[in-house]
Amino acid sequence: MNVMLIGSGGREHALCWALAKSDKTAKIVCVPGNAGTAAEAKTVNVKLPSGISPEPGSIDFFVKTAGEHKIDFVLVGPEAPLCAGLADALWEKGIPVVGPKKDAAELEGSKDFAKNFMKKYGIACADSITVTEAAQAESYIKTKGAPIVIKADGLAAGKGVVVAATREVALKAVNDFMKAGTLGQAGKKLVLEEYLQGSEISVLAAVSVSPELARKGKAAIVPFVAARDHKRLLDGARGANTGGMGAVAPVPGLSADVSEAFARTILEPTLKGFIAERIEYRGFIFFGLMLTDSGPKLLEYNVRLGDPETQAVLPLLDCDFAHLCKAILDVKNEGTLKEFDIRWKKGFVCAPVAVSGGYPEKYRTGFPIMQNVPPTAQNTQDVKIFFAGAEYADSTRRNPPQTSGGRVLAVSAFAPTLDEARSKAYEALKTIRFENMFYRTDIGLPGAADSGNL
């Protein structure tokens, strides 16, 4: 089969790599892809023409590209095209999509929508209120006090959440978002949320839900092994909040009691809510959880796989990823997701991320990425470099790829123990260099995990 993969980050390189390993996959068309996808087997990168974006307004380009390459289904990596309705537009043209339609994508596109859904279906989460006026927000903060979490309602490229330790910080966030308009329309409505203390984990999952599947008793959300992202820039979970400085999977020491509580108080009510609301959702979902003393609480939904969690989780998958995508789509004669035999390798993956110096603020790009990874540090089974902000200067790929973003690459290493996986990952990472390269040195160590809702 031929697959179109939309996106250009490290998550998309990992998805491309997983698809390429399948005997069922003949061709992968990455739009626009990156240096990593360009080098994968069976893969071709297709640049977005000037003025074209991966959203419904550019549907003709994607339909044309799908026709030219005889695409069987599209896999959408990032959230923005899903929230804008790209899946709806492609389905209307008869092109199957792994990724939810716009109504379900509101679970990530609107924090208010997500919180209302959580409350309606009794999903364990932080207490919150939604406000549309700055004066209302300011009054609530002055009464409630701090710490408190301020969340912009809409998509804000990872900049829409402020964990305020003091009232002054909280009030400044309200001023920035609602009065100064630093996030545009995304910050005109805010969710003010209870601060939760604990440790964060991520649970990615496959979803195949429709009214028809519900009638047959085959609607399903199938969780993957839990992962832990490390969002802070510096060792010891200090410094600025980022899109993710590394991840490990599975989460070491996660108890069966926590897993059972997550299923009972979060996953199962989410599935019941989808069925009750007659939501049609074929794709992936991300549960961002805080493990508190009173049990796991849901911080947020993402309507796609996480980044860099995907780079830690997919190397553990011990079954055919392309077949899993077909099961999600409920393709005739392929079986449903509920029937799919999803299997995982026994062991751990550690995936530290290398970033451009200055990230997450101002940084420079265009630096060659030099690799000298010896066989002892990298092989196709144990260690994989997943590129994110990296591109080749031309299609010949004769020269090294160059940095093109803040998060440049992740090195994912698999081993029987987390300590061994960490050792392999950092051994390989030390053989890679580019100007102003920076990375944390403690991904996966005790004390490196984030705490409090970030």
Q: Gist?
A:
With 454 residues, the chain is of the alpha+beta class. It contains 14 helices and 25 strands. The two termini are 40 Å apart.
Question: Which labels suit this protein?
Answer:
Dna Ligase, domain 1; Rossmann fold; alpha+beta; 6-stranded antiparallel beta sheet; about 450 residues; 5-stranded parallel beta sheet
Walkthrough of the structure:
The chain is built from 14 helices and 25 strands. It is α+β, with helices and mostly antiparallel strands and 454 residues long. Strands 12, 15, 18, 20, 23 and 25 form a six-stranded antiparallel sheet that branches. Strands 3-2-1-4-5 form a five-stranded parallel sheet. Helix 6 packs across helix 7 and helix 8 runs antiparallel to helix 9. The radius of gyration is 21 Å and the shape is globular. The two termini are 40 Å apart. The mean pLDDT is 93.
What proportion of the residues form beta strands (DSSP E)? 25-35%
DSSP E strands, number: 25
Counting DSSP H or I runs of 4 or more residues, the number of helices is 14
Q: What kind of sheet is the major sheet?
A: 6 strands, antiparallel
Write the layout of secondary structure elements.
Layout (H helix, E strand, L loop, with lengths): L1 E6 L2 H11 L6 E6 L2 H4 L4 E3 L13 H10 L4 E4 L2 H6 L1 H7 L4 E2 L3 H8 L1 H10 L7 E4 L2 H11 L3 E5 L8 E4 L2 H13 L10 E5 L4 E11 L1 H5 L4 E4 L4 E2 L2 E3 L3 E4 L4 E4 L6 H21 L4 E12 L2 E8 L6 H5 L7 H8 L19 E9 L13 E2 L11 E5 L2 E2 L10 E2 L3 E9 L2 H12 L2 E2 L3 E2 L16
Parallel strand pairs: 1-2, 1-4, 2-3, 4-5
Antiparallel strand pairs: 6-9, 7-8, 7-9, 10-11, 10-16, 12-15, 13-14, 15-18, 16-17, 18-23, 18-25, 19-24, 20-23, 21-22
Helix pairs in contact: 6-7, 8-9
